[in-house]
UniProtKB/TrEMBL annotation:
Residue ranges occupied by any UmuC domain in the UniProt entry: 5-189
Alphabetical list of PROSITE patterns matching this protein: UMUC
Gene3D superfamilies: 3.30.70.270, 3.40.1170.60
Family recorded in the similarity comment: Belongs to the DNA polymerase type-Y family.
Pfam families with a match to the protein in the record: DUF4113, IMS, IMS_C
Name of the protein this chain belongs to: Y-family DNA polymerase
Length: 424
DNA sequence: TCTGGGGTCCTAGGACCC
DNA sequence: TCTGGGGTCCTAGGACCC
């Protein structure tokens, strides 16, 4: 075996971030909610032990929350993003070969370190991340990414492992696979787990020994890669450069239901502006824009779901241009009389900004808009989000469409912007 | 009263062509 | 009533991930 990967996974990441600035909550149950304070999306170990499940709606766990004095937070993505960056920086002090896989997980290529004392090295990483950032992590080390995931799960759960597990010899790998339920394998979701259990394949170990052609026939080539990775055959390398997005979506549920077109437009244009910003950040333009709206599927009220895709005359990353077309699309799908719960904008057919073909029939001065957007981004950088807005995005934060965030913590690590915005 | 958001990849099936 | 075969491209939908 030549390859070696480590998966570093932050424990209960959002809950751990919130606790950093409230040390008195150490050892106490903490829950972080999704947008609009809807569901539990992160739980401290104490909250897990009390039976709070991932995705539980707040209103359904209200009793346990009160009874056990669980500390509840609205999600604060600015804080989590900043802490995520700091964790990644610490990991890069061990090796430049770090793939930031998600906000709370990174893969490290340890191929060149395999002659070191790996358990000690992993423990070293864990301790330094804790020391530098305050965030507790678990580390799994193995010859493939999928096996590193397996190792990580056990490292996190087993008290004996102390947060780190190295799986390099086949005996221990197989023992770990026997202890891993099929649904806990990376790449096996709910549907596939159900299907596989039906055929008597209930553990990772069984999956490892399933016939290739059967997998390909009944599942997919993606699953075949997973199986090969379980056998120690690497099918996925480290991705060092974050790939450019093929589509970008911004959407939110509303704090309260929205009826009127103008308010829906405020929400949709705000999402369009965010999409434009994300496009500029990766120096790209989009040729297609989709707007969608829908009512609350949980409510016992008339339901309506619709979307409209528009081809832009010229690929663009300008707030003004995307908002203009968002309005057009929204006019096509808006129906009065419904209680809308969510709106969103998706931009797709994304191309590099340098490849934009000008359209002779298009009257917009794209050069001018590009310069305007550069100024807009500079102002935003200096004075914080939402310092400048397009009028139809609205300025009243009390409007129904805005997020409900009753339990938000202050942005302690990135507060400079906030202070500047207030002063101006 | 209250139920997240943002992605990717693959496949099946339809439209169209020769 | 019978009514090709193969290729490409596109889209919708389903699966997965965090």
């Amino acid at each position: 075996m030549t390859s070696l990967f480590a998966l570093v996974d932050c424990n209960n990441f959002y809950a751990s971030c919130e606790r950093l600035f409230r040390p008195e909550l150490e050892g106490k149950p903490v829950v972080v909610l999704s947008n609009n304070d809807g569901c539990a999306i992160a739980r401290s170990n104490e909250a897990k032990a009390l039976g709070v499940k991932m995705g539980d709606p707040l209103f359904q766990i209200q009793d346990i929350v009160k009874q056990h004095n669980i500390h509840v937070f609205s999600s604060n993505y600015e804080l989590y993003g900043d802490m995520s960056f700091r964790v990644a920086e610490t990991l890069r002090s061990f090796t430049p070969n770090v793939e930031v896989y998600s906000v709370d997980e990174s893969f490290l290529d340890l191929g060149e370190f395999k002659f070191l004392n790996l358990p000690e090295y992993a423990l070293n990483i864990k301790n330094r991340v804790k020391q530098n950032t305050g965030i507790p992590v678990s580390i799994g080390v193995a010859p493939t990414k999928t096996l590193a995931k397996v190792a990580n799960r056990i490292a996190k759960k087993s008290p004996k492992a102390n947060g780190c597990l190295v799986l390099t010899d086949s005996y221990h790998i197989d023992e770990a696979l026997k202890r891993t339920e099929i649904g806990d394998v990376w790449g096996v979701g709910r549907q596939y787990a159900k299907f596989l259990i039906n055929y008597g394949i209930a553990t990772a170990y069984k999956l490892k020994h399933t016939n290739d052609s059967w997998i390909k026939k009944h599942l997919s080539v993606v699953m075949l890669r997973t199986v090969k990775e379980l056998r120690g055959e690497p099918c996925a390398d480290l991705e060092l450069e974050p790939g450019k997005k093929k589509e970008i979506c911004t959407s939110r549920s509303f704090g309260k239901p929205v009826k009127e077109f103008d308010e829906l437009l405020e929400a949709a244009s705000t999402h369009a502006g965010k999409c434009a910003f994300k496009l500029r950040k990766q120096k790209c333009c989009a040729k297609e824009l989709t707007v969608f709206v829908h009512t609350n599927r949980f409510a016992d009220t008339p339901q309506y779901f619709n979307s409209k895709k528009i081809q832009l005359p010229t690929a663009s990353s300008s707030d003004l241009e995307l908002i203009k077309h968002t309005k057009k699309a929204l006019e096509r799908i808006y129906k009065p009389g419904y209680l809308y719960k969510k709106a969103g904008v998706i931009v797709s057919d994304i191309i590099p900004g340098s490849n934009v073909q000008l359209n002779l029939l298009d009257k917009t001065d794209h050069g001018k808009e590009f310069t305007l957007m550069q100024f807009l981004d500079r102002i935003t950088n200096k004075f914080g989000r939402d310092s400048v807005k397009v009028a139809c995005q609205g300025i009243d934060p009390k409007k129904n469409w805005n997020l409900k965030r009753e339990f938000i913590s202050p942005c302690r690590t990135t507060r400079l912007n906030e202070i500047l915005t207030i002063r101006i």
